[in-house]
Amino acid sequence: MVSLLALAWIYFRIGLIFVGGGYVLIPLLNHIMVQQYKWLTLREFLDGLALSQLTPGPLAMLATFTGYRAGGFPGGLVATAFIFLPCVTLMLIVSRNYERLKKIDLINSTLEGVLPAIVGLVAAAAWNLGASSLSGVRELVIMAIGFAVFKWTKISPMIVIIGAGLVGLLIN
């Protein structure tokens, strides 16, 4: 069992870079939770990632899941609170000063540099997850259909996820 203080520090650090949405964190979360601390196997990580998509704030829920696995119920609470602490604090500061901040060229230039890096991190995460979880033709077909439905229709991602789960259930 991991100490709550160690969990708080780990998830606080993760929360500090929770910029660009949770998908940017997938490579970092995989490294910390699977490779570094071995709290989860790769399969458990992928299952947790898939299950977390059924909840609001999916990757934050993955933090709750892994915090629970690492430190029980208190670990889940600590992981959840500390992954949100930096972004909540930042949003309180930014929202209070938004009108003034949006006029600063340095901030706009920084964001223009960060955005392509975030896209790259998301692409790398997709590549790594695909390489480790798409092991057969069935998975590739389900992925392609899910991509096409999400990209070219207005069907809710939740319906795509539930539909893919049902297909997996029926085919197995």
Write structural notes for this entry:
This protein has 172 residues and is mostly helical. The chain has a domain of 101 residues. It is 80% helix and 0% strand. It is built from eight helices and no strands. The two termini are 35 Å apart. The model has no long low-confidence stretch (mean pLDDT 82).
Identify the notable features of this structure and list them briefly.
mainly alpha, single chain, 0% strand, 172 residues, 80% helix, 8 helices, globular
The residue fraction in helices comes out at over 70%
Give a count of the beta strands, DSSP E runs of length 2 or more: 0
Largest β-sheet summary: none
- First-residue to last-residue Cα separation: 35 Å
Uncertain residue segments: none
The whole-angstrom Rg is 18 Å
- Which outline best applies? globular
- Written as H for each helix and E for each strand, in order along the chain, the element string is HHHHHHHH
Strand content: under 5%
Mean pLDDT: 82
Number of helices: 8
Which structural class do you get from the secondary structure elements?
A: mainly alpha
Layout of SSEs?
Blueprint lengths: L3 H13 L9 H11 L5 H11 L5 H39 L1 H4 L3 H29 L3 H16 L4 H15 L1
Helix pairs in contact: 1-4, 3-4, 7-8
Structure described in brief:
The chain has 172 residues and is an all-alpha fold. It contains eight helices and no strands.
